[in-house]
Amino acid sequence: MIPGPEHLVILPIVLPLLAGALLLFFNDQERVLKATVSIVTSIALLVISVMLIRVAHFDGTAENGRVVVYLLGNWPPPFAIVLVLDRLAAMMLLLTSVLAIPALIFSIGRWQKAGPHFHTLFLLLLMGLNGSFLTGDLFNLFVFFEVMLAASYGLVLHSSGPQRVRAGLHYIAINLAASLLFLIGVAMIYGVTGTLNMADLAVRIPRVSPESMMMLEAGAGILGIAFLIKAGMWPLAFWLPTTYTAAPAPVAAIMAIMSKVGVYVILRLSLLFFSEETVSAGFGTNALLLGGLATITFGAIGVLASQSLGRLAGFSVLVSSGTLLASLGLFEAGVTAGALLYLVSSTVAISAFFLLIELVERGQDQISNVLAVTVEAFGDEEVDEDFEEEVGVVIPGTLAILGISFGACALLLAGLPPLPGFVAKFVIIDAGMNPGGADGGSVISPSAWWLTAFLILSGLASLISMSRAGIRAFWAPVDAVVPRVLVTEILPIAALLVLTFAITVQAGPIMRYMQATADNLHDPRIYIESVIDAPRAVTPMRETTQ
Amino acid sequence: MELVLSIGIGVLVASGVWLLLRPRTYQVIIGLSLLGYAVNLFIFSMGRLKTNAAPVVQGVDVVDPANFADPIPQALVLTAIVIGFATTALFLVVLLAARGFTGTDHVDGREPER
């Protein structure tokens, strides 16, 4: 009995849930078993999400793709909860599993031993992420958000310590408050429209009477704030760098995509609810644009001011979020396509960067520790080393690999060729400068100019501070102690960076996918029709969708 | 009834927000709980207020929806209560851990300098 492609849709949620629950039965001492199960699960998720991308992209027509609707409970569509797989959801699923595998492999070396139930929490986090991407129901989205957040609370506090507990305290308090805003927004939207199904909402919102529209927009605004807190828009983002810095490296690496979940939901809901045909088309885009630009500014200043690598990475998350939000604020399909590529490349880059930082700082810690003890005892030797310096420095292999990886991260974050950060920014600027296609000849909006300027300046800021941090970490220390690095720790980083290079090489097909995704998002009729017309399964284990 | 409910929600939110902004962790958690209650009542009120109306439709005859309460907000409230309870309990543990590590119940982990 091989389940058809329809049943693949539920697997990204069920698989990590089962695996995570299974691991609870074993003692934490059985590390090999636990690591094996969770890595095998995430590899299975990778395979499934590649299959789902094939279904979503190639099974349907080139223009529309295929939207697979999974009716949980087999109720006729506007009722009960549905899972919806379209190009965007499939892409986010793939990105999640691509980030999960390196983070898990990285954790084998050290982090999985630092506290109980690491793998269970990690798998539940994956379940929450996948569920948020797949669900087609507003309240179900809240539930998956809470699953994801509850797991992330545990992971941020993993291996404990005063700094983590303090950062975790703030993180949890802010997210609890944000969840309450989420609920208020959902309740207000339900109060006006009487439905929670996203596609049904998209049908009903244009028909809402003008006097109720204000309440609906208030609800949508409150809901948006809840997601913007997660995405880290400027006045709501002060928790983010501290939390990401305090989190253990593999956790920070997967949390790089958690801030993108907020962006994903905003992208999905704003284009679904306030598409071009509705009365309040483009509701909130100005707020997104201005907020995004403010976030880029705040992030760039933070990046320049950061003394430690951890905070540098934390503020890079903000720059990335700000760029995405501002690009969405332009409300252009071409810009959205570029923003999607930017989302993928910057998330992979930040994820690799968080893993890398841990290794680099491990070396620095050893330097200071060793110095404190041995400066006096081995004082003469240091002088000898200084003489040898003039002949030439032997760069040990580990340090060279770390340095090259660091350079690649810098290129990605600053958006320089040949890595995809450049391609993505180029597409965003190109589409912003040519509204309505290359031969459209329409007027370039002032906001496109602003976005271009901010994109280039934030890239410059990232480049300056990354070069400074790189020089300080790799060239300045005269008697650098080579950090002890396991193969399982450097390999995931290298794999992520090679992957970004592959994205550049395959930029053509990938960009076509992004463009198709953005077109579907800006014209959500296919999504809505597929959900509303989804046929029920006749008997269990039969075809559920068209 | 509407007035009583809205005043009740308003008082709960006002107290909750005030407590949430206080510097002691215990005040923060009580504030979050009060806000949670207010939000639960708010969700409930979004199904419109009705007295003596059952949320469950019985029988197969054609029914007048006006005689029944909206069951969905009640189901939502139930979910929200469970999730809110769990996260509050988790927050309480973190709060105790922070107290143990820092020796103070200030949210910043240290007493402000006077």
TrEMBL record, chain A:
Residue span, NADH:quinone oxidoreductase/Mrp antiporter transmembrane domain: 136-434
Nuclease keyword on record: no
Membrane topology category: Multi-pass membrane protein
Annotated family: Belongs to the CPA3 antiporters (TC 2.A.63) subunit D family.
Compartment(s) where it occurs, according to its Swiss-Prot or TrEMBL record: Cell membrane; Membrane
UniProt-listed Pfam families: Proton_antipo_M
Official protein name in the record: Monovalent cation/H+ antiporter subunit D
InterPro entries membership: CPA3_Na-H_Antiporter_D, NADH_UbQ_OxRdtase, ND/Mrp_TM
Lineage of the organism: Bacteria, Pseudomonadati, Pseudomonadota, Alphaproteobacteria, Hyphomicrobiales
Domain of life from the UniProt record: Bacteria
Family annotation (NCBIfam families): PRK12666.1
Chief location: membrane
Key word Cell membrane present: yes
Annotated keywords: Cell membrane, Membrane, Transmembrane, Transmembrane helix
Membrane-spanning intervals of the chain: 7-26, 32-55, 67-85, 91-109, 116-133, 139-157, 169-192, 212-232, 244-267, 287-305, 312-331, 337-357, 393-416, 447-464, 485-505
From TrEMBL, chain B:
Any matching Pfam family: Oxidored_q2
Membrane topology designation: Multi-pass membrane protein
Keyword Membrane: yes
TM annotation in the entry: 6-21, 28-47, 75-98
Cellular localisation: Cell membrane
Predominant subcellular localization, coarse grouping: membrane
UniProt keywords, alphabetically: Cell membrane, Membrane, Transmembrane, Transmembrane helix
InterPro entries: CPA3_antiporter_subunitC, NUOK/Mnh_C1-like
NCBIfam families, sorted: PRK09094.1
Similarity-based family: Belongs to the CPA3 antiporters (TC 2.A.63) subunit C family.
Protein name stated in the entry: Na+/H+ antiporter subunit C
Organism: Aquamicrobium zhengzhouense
